[in-house]
């Protein structure tokens, strides 16, 4: 059975966002009559290649970089892997990242023999620990080729100052490239404030109203990476493969609109988020807001609820038409805290009851009111001693 979106309250924007209607409209011609391959030499192909170049200009403007620094990829995960693996394969050395990174960064770093550093209670990299790790690596005669620190945490929404990170990296590992997974940033932060501090930056279109299957790697001029994909030499030999023209066009339109509407959307969404969390904290005992609001993006409403297991709660929310997530893993039948919450040091009394609710441009007051009603009722039901066992064999939604 297919569930229609108008029967659901969608609070999982960190996992994916609904496509903007303007982005859908922009891509449609390139799924039908404008189907030419932009790598071709005839006029039909050249006209489509011009559209790709124009989209590149739009994306570059939103990032505050030059069009030649934009590489179109298949997704944020590819962009992260291209940055980390591509740096290590070309330059050697090892990578360093915080313990709370998205697995696209964390796994790529560890796969290359890299090091993981600690974070603070808000999931931001510990700058003292980062400096010490970089010094330790140099002391044993090894080279750090890349440091990767995410701009906005995909699970709890915390914001990291890339300017502060860059200062540490430039001082303690001056030859290292600095990469940021900025996949969760575009809706909340002007990317022009991030780009000047990094050498590499990853985006994914479906996180800001674009389609799935297309992303961006910003590679600062002069940054040389070993390409993950060999072939036709597209993207100046940095990413071979036929361009996803429809996806690129839709992504550029979604990013353009996101950039224009960001300030107004943030004000509105912040008010909705505050109402949601404040009401839940008032209605329910033993609930904590995982990260202070002044340290995270306004679309994040991450809480942890004592005496609750996330999967049981998500089942009841799903039954009530609420789409949310836990961003936690189930191992050997027992709920374990996510790697992010574990690294933050969240009390194990609360971490099994993690709930990630993420708002976006389509979130309404009615969505928030309905979520409050369903969530409060669900928690009270689960905390009742006579509450029936709730099966955890139900999908709990996508993760970012």
N- to C-terminal separation? 24 Å
The ordered H/E elements are EHHEHEHEHEHEEEHEEHEEEHEH
Largest sheet: 7 strands, mixed
Write down how many β-strands occur, each being a DSSP E stretch of 2 or more residues: 14
Task: Give the helix tally.
Answer: 10
Q: Please identify the top-level CATH class of the largest domain.
A: Alpha Beta
Number of structurally distinct domains:
2
Enumerate the spans where pLDDT stays under 50 for 5 or more consecutive residues.
328-335, 388-400
Q: Rg to the nearest angstrom? A: 22 Å
CATH architecture of the largest domain: 3-Layer(aba) Sandwich
Helix content: 25-40%
Q: What spatial order of strands do you see in the largest sheet? A: 2-8-7-6-5-3-4
CATH superfamily of the largest domain: Type I PLP-dependent aspartate aminotransferase-like (Major domain)
Taken from the alpha-carbon principal axes, the silhouette is globular
CATH fold name of the largest domain, please? Answer: Aspartate Aminotransferase, domain 2
What is the strand content?
5-15%
The chain-level structural class is: alpha/beta
What descriptors fit this protein?
Aspartate Aminotransferase, domain 2, alpha/beta, 2 domains, Aspartate Aminotransferase, domain 1, 14 strands, 400 residues, 3-stranded antiparallel beta sheet
Briefly characterize the structure:
The chain contains ten helices and 14 strands.
Please characterize this protein's 3D structure:
This protein has 10 helices and 14 strands. It is of the alpha/beta class and 400 residues long. A 7-stranded mixed sheet has the order 2-8-7-6-5-3-4, with helices on both faces. Helix 5 runs parallel beside helix 6 (162-172). The radius of gyration is 22 Å and the shape is globular.
